[in-house]
């Protein structure tokens, strides 16, 4: 998984910062980073968040015991990896339909 956000959204670790005078294009401006991720992970999904950033993920080498689920409700995005044991109880508690998955449950609980 790869996520890149515009610096006003979140602060990046100092080790990942590029000095402003380097002349390098931003990963958001030129789209190179998202395209590169997609090229080395065929079948990956890239979600463009406009000027705020992007998310990309691949189901390649996924552990069948810890599945990855991507869910979106309104403007909330959730990439969930794992398993919730009391799904039926939580669906009833949050008045969710039968097709709601763990990602949607996490968003609704949040």
UniProtKB/TrEMBL annotation:
Report the source organism: Hibiscus syriacus
Task: Please state what the protein is called.
Answer: DNA repair family protein
Cross-referenced InterPro entries:
DUF3700 (IPR024286), TSJT1-like (IPR044828)
Report which superkingdom the organism of origin falls in. Eukaryota
Annotated DUF3700 domain residues: 2-110
